[in-house]
Design a protein that fits this description.
Blueprint (H helix, E strand, L loop, with lengths): L1 H7 L5 E8 L6 E10 L11 H14 L6
Antiparallel strand pairs: 1-2
Length: 68
């Protein structure tokens, strides 16, 4: 799911870390990603990233294999 999120947000080629834990009522993940692509040094656009992220998260909840 983290890879699908990274792809859906346009973070391909950047470094990221995923931390998964289940210390609450449900399992969940945290993702920390660099906005600088290591492949070519370009910066990832973060305009409206919160809105795009919320939409993508909802899509992944209902269609988890959308990007595969």
């Amino acid at each position: 799911m983290a890879e699908d999120y990274i792809q859906g947000m346009g973070f391909e080629g950047s470094q990221y870390v995923v931390y998964c834990h289940g210390d609450k009522d449900h399992d969940h993940i945290h993702i920390v990603a660099s906005r600088i692509r290591i492949t070519d040094g370009t910066m990832i656009n973060n305009i409206w990233d919160y809105v795009r992220s919320e939409k993508l998260i909802r899509e992944l909840e209902f269609y988890p294999k959308r990007f595969r």
